[in-house]
Amino acid sequence: MNRRTCAGVAGLIATLVGCASPPSLPVISAVASTPVAPVDAGVITSPPDAAAVDAAPPPTVTVAAVEAPPVRMFRGRSEDDWLRLMSERPVVRTVEHFHSTLFVFHMDLGDGVEISFQPERPGQETFWRREVTSYHLARLLGIEHRVPPTVGKRVPLSAFGRHARGVGLVVDRHGMVAGSASVWMPVLNSVHMHLLPARHEWASWMNPARPLPEASRERARQVSEVLVFDYLAANYDRWNCCNITADEHNDLVFRDNDAGWFPDVINRLGDPGVARRVPRYLYDSVQRATPELLRASVARDPLAGTVHLVAARAYVGYELRRQALLANLRRMIARHGEASVLPWQ
Q1: Fewer CB near the terminus (10 Å): N or C of the chain?
Q2: Domains plus CATH for the chain?
């Protein structure tokens, strides 16, 4: 994977960070269901007897039902279950490993739970941390089934076995290697969407001035999701042979998300017009996905208390990009109308 470093700019809107209001809580109403006897006109009633009042049963209280948030699912299991299992279960065996710029290990945790583990290595101490942050961004944006759930995990060096030879892992004083654990994807097919003919095709799908081909509607929605996801994280390493792939259902998988969150890159706006046509849910969620909410989500990772997962300056750059993306989408809506810019729910 090519890594490029861009010159950064100072965080222009640090004052914006911290200004968002927390989401309002649902209102639970209590309603007394004890019937009240009617009072006839002209009839004077005596005050109730105190002893009778004390002996009366308390009124029944009806609590209004509160709709639970939908459960996020990934490959037949809830994402929260994936995160818990990947975090808590020890490695049974290391199956294999792969190497390009980074080393990635295929590990078995038993009972059908398998992970892709990206370890901390000298000179690459922060790469796995950005994988964790990117997953939390996808979750906050409401992007489902595309980004494998990812969690920080420590694995004993002994669990790597012979696969640790020549890798150069960072091992702490307890013999543990920190890294990111993601749900293992058994099928990752190349879709060749990085090639020029395919780029021309999906770029036309993102143009709200053009009709959206019905046969390409679902693929276009997934392309829009990955464009928004990568723009907000400043992930510059997507469109190559290996980082845009599809699962066994031919749905895109957004993996290898460690090239985002570099402060010197994310604080440059880039081109917010990269996504000019987005699902309505994503347009709404970008408006809600403040840096404060993202920071709070990342802080729930089990290693967040001992490892600095993302630089504070990256949150400033994220907010710059979020506002730029929203401003551009509003211009597109004013020009082309909501139906053309937000064609998916």
Answers
A1: C
A2: 73-183 (no CATH), 188-341 (1.10.1070)
